[in-house]
Amino acid sequence: MRSLPASPAGGAATTDRWAPAREMDLQTLRPDRGRVLPVGAGITSAIGNTPVIELTRLNHTASDVRIFGKLEGANPGGSIKDRPAHYMIASAERSGALTAAKTILEATSGNTGIALAMIGAAKGYRVKLCMPNCVSLERQRILQALGAEVVLTSACEHTDGAIRTAHRLLASAPGTYYMPNQYENQGNLLAHYETTGPEIFAQTAGRVDVVVAGMGTTGTLMGLHRFFAERKPSVRIVGVEPAEGHAIQGLKNMTESMIPAIYDPNALDEKITIDDEEAFETTRLLAVREGVFVGMSSGAAVAAARRLAIDMRTGVIVAILPDRGDRYLSTTLFRSVCAKCPP
């Protein structure tokens, strides 16, 4: 296995053959493992410290560029959204904005809702979620299994319609609800500034050169930008934007959607547009060639990472893989991956 390139900070080339794909010191990356957790450590104690793996069979570049994926589906709620959901709820509890008498209300395309429902169930809060009825059945059923109330909105309005519905509900009974509002909440990006960024830096021994993530609420990208601007400014932050009229659940095209208040376009070093076909095909390839069963936004991120690798001579790219593929089995995403099966 190739060794990682020397740190750009200078110095002799490293002989360290570190690679996230091999066995690593889990006691270093997951200090909670191998010891008894404190009394009362619930489901939120399992959030974060997700693994990083190398994608070797989809990296066809002849250069010394390595592509890694951060498996956010390993979070207990199955997605990267566990991180900001935990931060937003904890902050609201501290400030008094969220009390036992209030219901958590949020607009979601699914993953944030699942995270809020999971944490709400663990803490005893009622949860009501507004989401477009075009989201996968798996997401809807997981929410129901966690005890959340689901309000379905028009598919043709996408997530924007769910946002408008949630705000109408809030305005009709403001004292009844607490709305995290992930599109404006600083806790969204703070979660990635304090956890996702430091994890990537540690897991790559500081040798990461590019981080790629999809554009939805943009909390991941904004938090990563803030962290690496302080820790290693040379790291490029690349946003993956779906094409107009896309069907990639969880992502937003900023020209046709409400722009999140936390989004700062200047925080991105580059923006790459990926269409449905390329995102879905890459998602299927991740499953059958890498054994990495992830969702469609993960395919979009890896598709962008592969494009970037072509123009690089050396370096380390980390793509954020937000969730697992089992949330999309009711969609057409994974059909026809077997040559013996009909479409």
CATH architecture of the largest domain: 3-Layer(aba) Sandwich
Query: Could you name the CATH topology of the largest domain?
Result: Rossmann fold
Please give the domain count.
Answer: 2
Number of helices: 9
Low-pLDDT ranges = 5-35, 339-343
CATH class of the largest domain: Alpha Beta
Major sheet: 6 strands, mixed
Number of strands: 10
In round numbers, the mean pLDDT is 88
Intertermini distance = 38 Å
Largest sheet: spatial strand order:
1-2-10-7-8-9
Helix content: 25-40%
Tell me the series of helices and strands, N- to C-terminal: HEEHEHEHEHEHEHEEHHE
Rg value = 20 Å
How much strand?
Answer: 15-25%
What class do helices, strands and sheet pairing give? Answer: alpha/beta
Global morphology: globular
Modified residues (N6-(pyridoxal phosphate)lysine): 81
Pathway: Amino-acid biosynthesis; L-cysteine biosynthesis; L-cysteine from L-serine: step 2/2
Enzyme class: transferase
Catalytic activity: O-acetyl-L-serine + hydrogen sulfide = L-cysteine + acetate
Account of the protein in words:
It is globular, with a radius of gyration of 20 Å. It has two domains: 26-74 and 195-328, Rossmann fold (3-Layer(aba) Sandwich), CATH 3.40.50; 82-178, Rossmann fold, CATH 3.40.50.1100. Helix content is 34%, strand content 16%. Helix 2 (82-95) crosses helix 3. By secondary structure, the chain is α/β, with parallel strands linked by helices. Strand 3 (103-107), helix 3 (111-123) and strand 4 form a beta-alpha-beta unit. A six-stranded mixed β-sheet has the order 1-2-10-7-8-9. A four-stranded parallel β-sheet has the order 5-4-3-6. It contains nine helices and ten strands. The longest helix has 18 residues, at 186-203. The modification N6-(pyridoxal phosphate)lysine is found at residue 81. One of its GO terms (molecular function) is cysteine synthase activity. This is cysteine synthase. Pyridoxal 5'-phosphate binds at residues 111, 216-220, 297. It catalyses: O-acetyl-L-serine + hydrogen sulfide = L-cysteine + acetate.
